[in-house]
Write a structure and sequence with these properties.
This protein is an alpha+beta fold and about 575 residues long. Helix content is about 60%, strand content about 10%. It has a five-stranded mixed sheet. Strands 5-6 form a two-stranded antiparallel sheet. The structure holds protoporphyrin IX containing FE (HEM) and 2-acetamido-2-deoxy-beta-D-glucopyranose (NAG) (3 copies). Keywords: Heme, Iron, Membrane, Metal-binding, Monooxygenase, Oxidoreductase, Transmembrane, Transmembrane helix.
């Protein structure tokens, strides 16, 4: 962890300082030599100058020499050079245009290419062959340095942590997202879907308003996430959830801003900045929220609301009630397996995890669940709203496979192949996590058609999922259109296995991809079974910004009709 305090930032300072002293001395030295009235200078002064300059020059050369491996790699895979010391930092780090900018670069220089971010060597990758080698490599499981800002803000959870800690926690948390456990979540997913439908119906159909669906989806997904991972009902539909959403996007904003400001890299300086105050404020809100979630309570997974139970008690016959109680008991046993119960057990049983670890992991799990899933869901609905012809096909499938009303089971969901195509296609076009960063932990050999390239250990690797998944060279002429059949249909040409990686692949793959697909499928099925959604927006008009998770510059409104 010593490295955390002496990050790339301090290195940046050191280099900057070295150069400044070096240049300053050079100028001084020259002015001394050239000064015509400098009769009084002494030989000793000059000697001291020469020694100082040479010493600094040597230091500088040593610095360059120590980095020769990076320069050699950069020589082989040339990319934009950028400014001294800042590298491509300024241009790359503008989140408004970042993804479009990188796409432009990847056409100008042959990707993969090497560039500089601050003084870090940065490998940019956007082709499936290279992406495969990186995701498969056991030496690329640690995240890039940027994630350090995130872990210093919200704690070191699975998403950001590095090897020994990550491996241990991943092993402990993995079982909480297995297929068996997901089956227990279906009642919650179904119930949340009904809340969503009611909301769409009341606001969209009865009041006839055009809706900003993203906000509505975020609430539903966050509610489902809290119930299924923490076992807590939050009632976001009624209580204020705004502060929490703002805190989550505030964290992203703070981390991105810090990344844009190399002078804030060293912790010591950062702690005195205004950005740090803002970070503390949003972190305070988030920690309060997670603390609330962690309060011990009887799990709601599979357990009915107690008020509803009382009503049921009065209304229902005795034998039915008995049956229900049995069911409840069964469900309560099942709820032992949700995330929070599992980690609680690890804490209570021994030295595996501490409460601080649980807090960190809970924070990250909630953030990773709701941001990405609501984004993917939103884009799927938006794409279907923009393409009525595919929405009709989806509706046909739903009519054929599902009953008209009522809950949807996991077996029914597994038969919805067109729904899955529609989801995959929207995640292809709008990768919810547009870019991931890794760090080469050892020297890597990159095998390509035109030779083998050595990527030195310590290189930051940026994998541009967003641009790869809409690359014409990979996906053909329809790459930038929404067309589920052309890209995922049974007759679609086979693509490289790593051409579509919205959850990434390999050891560090998303832990919740099954969860996300299940929830999205269920919500989509329930929505499009009885409603038609349309929008005036067109695909070409959408402006995306890469902001850790994908965001739109403006969110178009949608109209909802009953079928
Ligand atoms: C459509 C929805 C989702 C997408 C597109 C998505 C995408 C991703 C991606 C790309 C990563 C790898 C990031 C990297 O390598 O830097 C990741 C990691 C992760 N995701 Fe997801 N995710 C989604 C939903 C979820 C859900 C529902 C959960 C929780 C139940 C979750 C929990 C995690 C965790 C804990 C990690 C870190 C795993 C590790 O590093 O070992 N995600 N996700
Ligand atoms: C990467 O891993 C996959 C699955 O484990 C395997 O099929 C593939 O051959 C591997 N590719 C490389 C380049 O090692
Ligand atoms: C990232 O997104 C959040 C929330 O949408 C926004 O408030 C923030 O300004 C964005 N950050 C940047 C640097 O654009
Ligand atoms: C959708 O993508 C996933 C990979 O994320 C794949 O396993 C699945 O087969 C795809 N579904 C369809 C219908 O193409």
């Amino acid at each position: 962890m010593g490295r955390a305090a002496i990050g790339p930032g301090s290195q940046y300072y050191l280099e900057r300082l070295t150069l400044n002293i070096f240049l300053f001395d050079l100028i001084q030295f020259n002015s001394i030599r050239l000064d015509p009235i400098a009769g009084s200078w002494q030989f000793n002064d000059m000697l001291a100058c020469i020694i100082l300059v040479s010493w600094l020059a040597l230091l500088w050369l040593y610095f360059l020499w120590s980095r020769r491996r990076y320069y050699k790699a950069a020589w082989q895979l040339p990319g934009p050079v950028g400014w001294p010391f800042i590298g491509m930092g300024l241009q790359m780090m503008n989140p408004q245009t970042f993804l479009q900018y990188m796409d432009g670069l990847s056409h100008k220089y042959k990707a993969p290419f090497i560039s500089w971010m601050g003084t870090n060597c940065f490998l940019y990758v956007n082709d499936p062959q290279t992406v495969e080698q990186i995701f498969n490599s056991t030496h690329c499981t640690n995240k890039g340095d940027f994630y350090r800002f995130m872990s210093s803000a919200i704690g070191d959870g699975l998403f950001t942590s590095s090897s020994p800690r990550w491996q241990k926690h991943r092993r402990l948390i993995n079982p909480a997202f297995g297929r068996q456990i997901l089956c227990n979540f279906l009642p919650i997913f179904n119930a949340e879907a009904d809340v969503l439908l009611e909301k769409l119906d009341v606001e969209g159909v009865q009041r006839g308003k055009s809706l900003e669906i993203y906000e509505i989806l975020k609430k539903i997904v966050l509610e489902a996430a809290c119930q299924t991972t923490m076992g807590k009902r939050m009632n976001f539909q009624h209580d204020g959830s705004k502060a929490i959403f703002e805190a989550y996007s505030g964290i992203t904003e703070v981390c991105v801003k810090r990344m844009l400001s190399p002078w804030l890299y060293p912790e010591l300086i950062y702690r005195w900045s205004r950005l740090f105050d803002r970070q503390q404020k949003v972190v305070g809100v988030l920690f309060g929220f997670v603390e609330q979630l962690l309060q011990p309570a009887v799990s709601v997974v599979g357990v009915e609301d107690s008020d509803a139970n009382k009503q049921l008690e009065e209304e229902q016959h005795q034998h039915q009630h008995q049956h229900q109680r049995q069911q409840q008991q069964q469900r309560r046993i099942k709820s032992k397996s949700i995330f929070i119960e599992q980690v609680r057990e690890h804490v209570e049983r021994g030295q595996q995890m501490s409460w601080q670890d649980v807090r960190d992991e809970a924070n990250v799990i909630i953030a990773a669940t709701f941001e990405t899933t609501s984004t993917a869901l939103y884009f799927t609905i938006l794409c279907l709203a923009m393409h009525p012809e595919y929405q009709e096909k989806l509706h046909d499938e739903l009519c054929a496979e599902l009953p008209e009303h009522g809950d949807i089971s996991i077996e029914q969901l597994e038969r919805l192949s067109y729904t899955e195509m529609a989801i995959n296609e929207s995640m292809r076009l709008f990768a919810p996590v547009p870019m991931v960063l890794r760090r080469a932990g050892q020297d890597l050999e990159l095998r390509r058609d035109d030779g083998v390239y050595l990527i030195p250990s310590g290189t930051q690797i940026g994998i541009d999922i967003y641009n790869m998944q809409r690359d014409v060279r990979v996906w053909g002429p329809l790459a930038r259109t929404y067309n589920p059949e052309a890209h995922f249909g049974p007759d679609a040409p086979t693509r490289h296995a790593f051409a579509f990686v919205p959850f990434t692949k390999g050891l560090r793959m998303c832990i919740g991809y099954r969860y996300a697909l299940l929830l999205m499928k269920l919500l989509l099925a329930k929505i499009f079974r009885c409603y038609r959604i349309s929008t005036a927006a067109r695909l070409e008009q959408l402006l995306v910004k890469g902001n850790i998770s994908l965001k739109l510059k403006e969110y178009p409104l949608c109209r909802v009709e009953r079928r």
